[in-house]
Amino acid sequence: MAATVQRFKLVFFVPQSALQACKTAIFGAGAGRYPGPGGYTECAFTSKGVGQFRPGDAANPNIGEVGKLEEVEELRVETLCMGREVAARAVEALKKAHPYEEPAYEVYKLEDL
């Protein structure tokens, strides 16, 4: 029986102005590719929302001011990563491309059912 590649979902939040740069970075790292004969690449789902944060005293915020609660229109991006190594490379690429000093992201291990 052939070994099954672990699948991960990368979810991150980004302002509209940095969306394309972040997607280009993660796709370049191998995220967004679906297995199978179709050869699909650069697959993602994007939805709009509002994020909020209050930068601490030691912060150097890209948006907002230290100590002031900030609400920002952001996009939630979800994509598939085939294998742990691809997920790790995609997160590293995201961190380099994202304008925030601490980008918000999540990685979920997916189960085959």
TrEMBL record:
Q: Which InterPro entries match?
A: DUF34/NIF3_sf (IPR036069), N-reg_PII/ATP_PRibTrfase_C (IPR015867)
Report the protein name in the record: ATP phosphoribosyltransferase
Natural source organism: Lojkania enalia
Q: What is the lineage of its organism?
A: Eukaryota, Fungi, Dikarya, Ascomycota, Pezizomycotina
